Amino acid sequence: MEVTLTPSNALETALQAALADHTQAKALYEQLIKARLYLLSDGQEAPQADGTTELSIMQWHIPVSDDQVHYFVPLFTSQEAVDQAKAIMESEGSEFHGQIEIDAPQAFQLLLSNQMDMALNPNSNLSKVVSSDEIRYMLLPDMALLPQGNQLLLLGKVLDDGLPMFGAVHQILANYPSVKAGYFIESCELDIRRGGTDSAFTLALTLEGDRISDDFSRIRSDCRNLHREIELHGWEIRPYLLRSDKHDEISDFCLKKLEPFYRPSLLSKFKTWFS
């Protein structure tokens, strides 16, 4: 059963606007990260030895197959939204144990640390999944929200570059003297209602010389082979050519916010000079 919520505060107004027009997403995130949100209690709060009480948060679930369900934490953007949810719960025979009012950053960090999925105002016209990519964009300075055609793209610095895959990519690039710089970034397409989707690693490259097209094509092939070998169930690696004659959003993000993941070593430069 879907209920209709009429926006009652700045966050809900921004949420309604972004759901109708994805170009309004930035305003939504600005409102969301400074909002007070509401969680539902499941009535099992436990007193702690230090005199505090541990939060006990209600989860809802939706069926994903005949024998599986997906659990998530409902978050509400106003008292009116909580009241609507309470009325539905009681009409379905579910018990309402109360609510917890909490600042959005605290709620997001708490739920992420416990690996809980979350959604704003589920079963309403103002419903929206909140993904970890979006939370990182709101909380950390190393993310960017960029328009790309009719979609939005979230870009961010890779947080863990110590995985074996990164050493393998570094070795691939060392085989091509035309590569002058490489930037490794996380990327995902953003659907306002469903959150981040289609996550991948973008390998943005600066190439010079008369073999740019051929080398870039070979690098793409090498990355596909690497993905099959060691990241079979991981994110795809998508090479992206940075052009000096064309400044797009990805180029600006790399050049303004990141240090290169790869630059040719002095030894490789010597090999180039004497080849």
Brief digest:
This protein has 275 residues and is α+β, with helices and mostly antiparallel strands. Helix content is 36%, strand content 29%. It has 2 domains: 10-130, no CATH class; 143-274, GMP Synthetase, Chain A, domain 3, CATH 3.30.300.
Explain what you see:
This is SseB protein N-terminal domain-containing protein. Residues 11-136 form the SseB protein N-terminal domain. The protein is an alpha+beta fold and 275 residues long. The protein has two domains: 10-130, no CATH class; 143-274, GMP Synthetase, Chain A, domain 3. The chain is 36% helix and 29% strand. A five-stranded mixed sheet has the order 9-10-11-12-13. α1 (10-20) packs antiparallel against α2 (25-32) and α6 packs antiparallel against α7. The N and C termini lie far apart (70 Å). The model is unreliable at 269-275 (pLDDT under 50).
